[in-house]
Amino acid sequence: MSTTYPYTLHFITGNISSCFGCKNKYKKPLEPPNDLCIQHQDWREYLTPSSSTPQRKFSNVYYHCRPQCIQLNNLYFIPIITVPPASVVTPIYTTATFTCEGTGDIFNWSVQGASLTPAIAQQRGITYTDPGGPGNLSSVLTISALPINDGIGIGCHIISFLPFEYASSGSTLTIRGIAQVEDLQYSFTTNNLLLITWSRPVYFSSDIPIGSSVSYQVLVTDEDGDIILDTNTPNANVALPNITECDLFNVSVTALLAQYTSINNTISNNGSYAVNITINKDNFIRPNVTIELSCPPSQSNTSLTITSDSTAVIDQYTFTGTDESINDIRTLIPYHQYNYTVRVFNLRNKLQYETYTII
Fold first, then answer.
1. InterPro entries from the entry (predicted)?
2. Which of the residues 155, 190, 328, 355 has the least number of beta carbons within 10 Å of its own beta carbon?
């Protein structure tokens, strides 16, 4: 019996055909967790065509993941886990923790019967603490409650030497709740209509009653947090009038199913109603005032007010069309002060931008 080489979990692949303990062949096809064995290095005997004398070779040997198989070559094989991991039920998108403690030389975590590797840890959102050792071993595994992790098995395995001891203990992660909606997006129509669409959640926990209907809470707010829409709908889309690319707004969609409420999925639009006014004073009596709009008149209510000496309104009009550049050319009376003020309202008649220039 060798006690100076590690015992590790290993997939049954390649030429691995039988257990070094019980000598029985591994049954195929191999399905998890029966596709795993325990690998160790030891002396094994074999015959060659050129000699009738058994030859010895120090190489890898493989056992069933059963104590009785290992005990055939290691008489002191006994359980050594003092605190086994307990099964956990947790809400979706939270985190769950599993604790395992024992005594020995080697500590391993497994997921779905496979040794926990960095790739598996990254894929499933797993971290774990260093178990320490040899001697007293203790590790805490933390896993994200992602839909792909529902129902997976979490196991811990401890091996010690002199005498050889091996123990394993398993637990299960169960996730409850509903996933968030997917593919949340929006588009604008030619008649200034905002269309918001999304896809149904892809995950529902198994405890939701059969036949339950899903609905969606939709909240749309503007840049000040004022509510544009707050509604519940069974459909996977809503349409809102008088909202354009120029608007700044936030969309939140939450799925409701039976006793569960999903976390919300959000999306935003960062529009602009900014205005820039420039003056060409080559002809002071008849200046050319250019007004550059970031939002065209067809998607806003934009007006120009011209006052003389800050009091008398000499002209006021609303821009129309789709041009984002408007020129105002008129004859002015010398020695008077003229104020050109531009006000931009959205299609819901809320002031979005105001600026002025003085001539």
1. Ig-like_dom_sf
2. 190
